[in-house]
C-alpha cells in the first residue's frame, strides 16, 4: 500500500479491532473522536466510502428539516454536516503549509474540535466504523448507516482514487481490485465495517439501509426515515422529495460534486454513475466475476448479512 499511496497518505495506520486502515493524523485524534460528547438530538450518517453517504445525507437532512429546499440549496452539504474525521486527513494536521495566500486550511464545521460549539441539532457525517466512534453513540443519538454491494463500492472507489489523485500513478481496475480484496486501501476492511452496523440494525436508534434498497424504492426509504424521525409528509411532498433525490437531479448540482476535476464535462465526477450492479462491466471475464462472487460469499458465509437482489 505504501507503494500506491506514496505522496498522499504517509504514514498510514491500522486502528480498531479490525485493523482499519486510516490516514495520517488520525492516530493523534482517535481518542478525542472516541470521547466526543454525543447529544440526544444529533443525527449521524455513517457509511463506508462510496456506499451512498452523500445521497443519504441529503435525504436525511431534508426530512429532518421540514423539507427546507431553500436551506439545502443555499448551504452546501459539507457545511450542513460535520465530516468529523476530515481534519485528521487534512493537510493542516499533517503539518503542511496552507496553499499560498491562505492563512488557514478551510475546515471549521468539518472539525471535530469545533463540534461542541455547533448548535443543536447537529448533523454529523463519518466514514469511521462504529468501533472507532463514541461507545454511547447509539444509546444517545439517531444513527443512519448505508451499506452497498462491495463490488460496486470497489468500482466507485477506484474512480474516487482517480478523482482525488490518491495514487501517484493511475492503476488499472484489476490491480485496484487486488488491493481491495486484500484490504490494502484506506478505510478497509469493508466487511467488518458493515457487519458492525448490521449487528446493531435492530437497535431503536439505528436505521440500517442498503444503497440497493434506495435504488429500488426511494419512496419507501423516505417513508421509513420520516417515521424514524417522527415526521409526516403528504404523498405529494414525498414524491417531490424523491424527484429531488434522483441521480439526474443531484448530479446537476455543483454542491454534491466534490473534487478538483468535478466541473469538467469529460472528467470523473463525484456523482458518477448512480447504479447498482454496474460492477459486472468491470469484472469483465468469467474468472474475475467468479472471483468477485467468491469474495462476497467468503465474507458473508458466517453471517446473516445479505445484500438485496437488484432485479
Ligand atoms: P457511483 O460511483 O457508483 O456512481 P458516497 O457518497 O458514499 O461517496 O457514495 C458515492 C456513490 O453514491 C457514487 O456511486 C454516487 O454516484 C452515488 N450517488 C450519489 N447520489 C446518488 C443519487 N442521488 N442516486 C444514486 N446514486 C447516488
Automatic annotation (TrEMBL):
Keywords: Transferase. It holds the Pfam family Sulfotransfer_1. Residues 40-303 form the Sulfotransferase domain. GO terms for molecular function: sulfotransferase activity. PANTHER family: SULFOTRANSFERASE SULT. Belongs to the sulfotransferase 1 family. This is Sulfotransferase domain-containing protein. It comes from Euphydryas editha (Edith's checkerspot).
Amino acid at each position: 500500500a505504501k507503494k500506491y499511496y506514496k505522496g498522499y497518505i504517509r504514514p498510514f495506520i491500522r486502528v480498531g479491532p479490525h485493523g482499519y486502515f486510516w490516514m495520517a493524523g488520525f492516530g493523534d485524534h482517535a481518542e478525542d473522536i472516541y470521547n466526543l460528547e454525543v447529544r440526544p438530538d444529533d443525527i449521524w450518517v455513517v457509511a463506508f466510502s462510496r456506499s451512498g453517504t452523500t445521497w443519504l445525507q441529503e435525504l436525511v437532512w431534508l426530512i429532518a428539516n421540514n423539507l427546507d429546499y431553500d436551506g439545502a440549496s443555499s448551504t452546501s452539504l459539507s457545511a450542513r454536516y460535520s465530516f468529523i474525521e476530515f481534519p485528521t486527513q487534512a493537510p493542516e494536521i499533517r503539518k503542511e503549509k496552507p496553499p499560498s495566500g491562505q492563512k488557514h486550511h478551510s475546515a471549521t464545521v468539518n472539525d471535530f474540535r469545533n463540534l461542541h460549539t455547533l448548535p443543536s441539532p447537529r448533523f454529523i457525517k463519518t466514514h469511521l466504523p462504529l468501533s472507532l466512534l463514541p461507545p454511547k453513540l447509539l444509546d444517545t443519538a439517531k444513527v443512519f448507516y448505508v451499506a452497498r454491494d462491495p463490488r460496486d463500492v470497489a468500482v466507485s472507489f477506484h474512480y474516487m482514487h482517480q478523482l482525488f489523485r490518491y495514487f501517484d500513478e493511475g492503476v488499472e481496475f484489476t490491480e485496484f481490485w487486488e488491493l481491495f480484496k486484500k484490504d490494502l486501501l484506506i478505510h478497509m476492511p469493508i466487511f467488518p465495517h458493515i457487519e458492525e452496523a448490521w449487528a446493531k440494525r435492530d437497535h431503536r436508534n439505528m436505521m440500517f439501509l442498503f444503497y440497493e434498497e434506495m435504488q429500488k424504492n426511494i419512496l419507501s426509504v423516505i417513508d421509513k426515515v420520516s417515521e424514524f424521525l417522527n415526521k409526516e409528509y403528504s404523498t405529494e411532498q414525498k414524491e417531490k422529495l424523491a424527484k429531488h433525490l434522483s441521480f439526474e437531479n443531484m448530479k446537476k448540482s455543483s454542491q454534491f460534486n466534490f473534487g478538483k476535476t468535478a466541473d469538467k464535462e469529460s472528467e470523473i465526477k463525484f456523482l458518477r454513475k448512480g447504479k447498482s450492479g454496474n460492477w459486472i462491466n468491470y469484472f469483465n471475464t468469467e474468472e474475475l466475476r467468479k472471483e468477485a462472487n467468491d469474495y462476497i460469499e467468503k465474507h458473508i458465509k458466517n453471517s446473516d448479512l445479505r445484500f438485496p437482489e437488484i432485479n
